[in-house]
């Protein structure tokens, strides 16, 4: 929340580091638990606890695999979409031409990618379109079909609509 207020997007990628830290702490906790059981119950009890922990981790990993596979596939699609956004910007006349046209609009989930590709700050890409300006939108979205921004360039996943004079 603090990072979002500071201008960073609220994407889940910012959660990766804290989650990794929690995983390290959990691993350290298991080591201490096994050591404690070994002191209290002996080596056989410690090995039993370690095996239970490993079995639980294996079960959780197998159960999470379908979601992990979906997440990896979604990440690959997203990365390909970002590459395609760069192609759209080139087809639309380039970053400078788009930036000269006025305000930039995009869908709420595309704002970070659009801002990055156009070398703008997040707050310089709006999700509430008004003319004049340029709309860079994913195909199929409402913004991609907004009659105020006639399409002038497109790729398989993206369209650029413009409501200003030729840049």
The SSE order reads HHHHEHEEEE
Strand order of the largest sheet: 2-1-3-5-4
Briefly note the structural class of the backbone: alpha/beta
State the shape: elongated
Mean pLDDT: 88
Query: Could you state the oligomeric state of the chains shown?
Result: single chain
Distance between the termini: 38 Å
| Counted beta strands | 5
Count, helices: 5
Portion of residues within helices: 55-70%
User: How large is the share of residues in beta strands?
Assistant: 5-15%
Low-confidence stretches: none
Rg estimate, integer Å: 24 Å
The description of the largest β-sheet is:
5 strands, mixed
Structure notes:
The protein has 167 residues and is of the alpha/beta class. It contains 5 helices and 5 strands, in the order ααααβαββββ. The chain has a 5-stranded mixed sheet, covered by helices on one side. Helix 2 runs antiparallel to helix 3. The radius of gyration is 24 Å and the shape is elongated. The model has no long low-confidence stretch (mean pLDDT 88).
């Amino acid at each position: 929340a603090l990072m979002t207020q500071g201008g960073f997007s609220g994407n889940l990628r910012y959660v990766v580091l804290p989650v990794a830290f929690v995983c390290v702490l959990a691993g350290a906790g298991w080591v201490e638990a096994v050591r404690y059981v070994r002191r209290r119950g002996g080596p056989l009890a410690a090995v039993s606890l370690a095996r239970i922990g490993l079995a639980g981790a294996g079960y959780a990993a197998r159960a999470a695999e379908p979601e992990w596979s979906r997440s990896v596939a979604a990440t690959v699609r997203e990365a390909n979409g970002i590459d395609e956004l760069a192609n759209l910007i080139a087809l639309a006349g380039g970053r400078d031409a788009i930036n000269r046209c006025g305000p930039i609009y995009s869908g709420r989930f595309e704002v970070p990618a659009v801002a990055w590709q156009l070398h703008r700050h997040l707050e310089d890409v709006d999700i509430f379109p008004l003319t004049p300006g340029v709309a860079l939108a994913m195909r199929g979205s409402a913004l991609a079909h907004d009659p105020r921004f006639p399409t002038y360039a497109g790729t398989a996943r993206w369209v650029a609509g413009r409501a200003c004079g030729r840049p």
